[in-house]
Amino acid sequence: MNAVVAIDSLKGSLTSMEAGRAVCEGIRRVYPDAVVSVRPLADGGEGTVEALVSGMNGELRTITVTGPLGQPLECSYGIIGSSGTAVIEMSAAAGLPLVPEKERNPLLTTTYGVGEMIRDAIARGCRRFIVGIGGSATNDGGAGMLQALGYDFLDSDGKPIPQGAAGLERLASIGSDNVLPDLSQCRFCVACDVTNPLCGELGASAIYGPQKGATPEMVRQMDLWLGRYAALAAKTFPRADASFPGTGAAGGLGFAFLTFTDAVLESGIHIVLEETHLADYIRNADLVITGEGRLDGQTAMGKAPVGVAGLAKQFGKPVLAFAGCVTEDAVACNQKGIDAFFPILRTVTTLSEAMEPGTAMKNMAGAAEQAMRLWKACREAR
């Protein structure tokens, strides 16, 4: 028995590797000599650093950066092995949960701390970056991040513009004379699963601004400022293209990466599957097991378990999935490569009890064991 297990984290309960190890335990209750490869899984958003660091012998580095409202903030990023690859979640330095609801105002929030994380990783020898940009509190077009990396964003008096989207109103010139020299050697794989352009009705300000605290008038202003910023950037930086899909991600951070660094925007799950070399493990497997905390119709629209299932089907492998809970519309996952899925709950319980890590581990292992008993019985009956 050769099984590959790649399960996304059960948010607030189990990490990706913890969930995978629980499945491994269940498998070995039925197949004691099974070869089980537990691989980390994430979709490029929350949990990506944790999954890749714990699953690929990486290290977690904690530093103090500038938070979204300009305050000092401790945050962490990962460095994977000897590959010189840094794994960063922008939300660790500029995420919406870091800003109290009553203080949410994208005119003031900055991505400066994201640039400080990148700068620290460069100083430690990293030249390859995986960056998740979901969950931002910002709409500054990535100006803060770029300032931290040495780009000069100046007003008409030659002074640095203030932090936050409001600073873009005063932007008169962008210079690169003081950019960190090693930045030109860096390559960024940016996990981006949205296609919004920088400006307009589907742009960063209009679509995501309100959830960050923007009023209709603020949305109008920020969209105007981002448009001016993009036009100014295009005069000096030939890669500037405000209409490119994904440039509106994270309040324009997608635009900043594509315009001012050597970057590509890719599906988060695609990046993780490539980085973990999951195909090499699946190739010779008898069975592939995946899952996440909640399996539903959204899962079928490209979330991590369906990414695993799609890869498995390229090799003709059967796929099972386990989840903390399963909704009625999860049946759509059966058309996306997941042959059968199972909720792991075994009794009526409260949500907090079900999410208790020890309980979740026990339930996951138990569900996997029973599925393996069925698997074994069917194979022996052939």
Task: Describe the overall structure.
The protein has 382 residues and is an alpha/beta fold. The protein has two domains: 2-41 and 279-380, 3-Layer(aba) Sandwich (Rossmann fold), CATH 3.40.50; 48-269, Glycerate kinase, domain 2 (Alpha-Beta Complex). The protein contains 13 helices and 13 strands. A six-stranded mixed β-sheet has the order 3-4-5-6-9-10, sandwiched between helices. Helix 1 packs across helix 13 (357-380). The radius of gyration is 22 Å and the shape is elongated. The model has no long low-confidence stretch (mean pLDDT 95).
What topology does this entry show?
Elements: E1 2-5, H1 16-30, E2 35-38, H2 48-55, E3 58-66, E4 72-80, E5 85-89, H3 91-94, H4 112-123, E6 128-132, H5 143-148, E7 152-154, E8 173-175, E9 187-191, H6 204-208, H7 216-234, H8 253-260, E10 262-266, H9 268-275, H10 278-282, E11 287-295, H11 304-314, E12 319-326, E13 340-343, H12 351-355, H13 357-380
Parallel strand pairs: 1-2, 1-11, 5-6, 6-9, 9-10, 11-12, 12-13
Antiparallel strand pairs: 3-4, 4-5, 7-8
Helix pairs in contact: 1-13
